[in-house]
Sequence to fold (248 residues):
Amino acid sequence: YRDRPAVDIDALVEAIVRFSYLVAEHPEVTEIDVNPLLATPRGVTALDARMVVKPERIDAPAYSHLAVRPYPEHYVHADYLRDGTPVTYRPIKPEDEPMWHRLLTSCSQESIRARFFSVIKEFTHEIASRFCYIDYEREMAIVAEVETAGKRELIAVGRLVADPDHEAAEYAIIIGDEWQGVGLGSKLTGYCLRVAEQWGIEWVYATTLKENVRMLAIFEEHGFVTRPDIEEGVVDAIRRIGGGAEGE
Fold:
């Protein structure tokens, strides 16, 4: 501007992001005034700052004062599939909606029915919003992401929905047809159970169709107790976190 060199935009963005982390992770901070914040081509400097804190909030958990929890980066985990394919398990993001759509449209009607207990012919934006735009305080959807031909792709989603008291969570999973039978369901379920434990959940329960033998085998592998409901044609499964199968 007027022959003056541009400021370091990356440094300015980093300062704003770090500032947001500060106020999100420290509930005791009630006011901050940074004046002035000097941005130059060589970086960003706070020349003066003032902060007000409430001592009674010092021991409050991080993020407890926020209406919506921030993205839980600590649940991002790199792994490998049985055939050596690199896969990343991470919480879903709103911007995953296009990839979520592609995953669901790649699934057969049998896979859709096994997950949703009904045939859904079209997944609209309204439906996608329910599954991609979530409150991380009460819901955790862990996606399995791979890269094929230089393009990111979602191949599975495991979802935990907690009750208001955060004592129990319902679990459900869907896997793209192309990726079934390669051990992904077991790996993703095991990871979701570890997330549930870190999340403070005591019980995880699920329901599947009685003919879904792959899901029943996964439940057995991971220490769920199952109970068939003959009249409804489904099987209920429950697992106590911290007291189930070894190695999780």
In short: The first strand starts at residue 29 and ends at 34. The chain is about 25% helix and 30% strand.
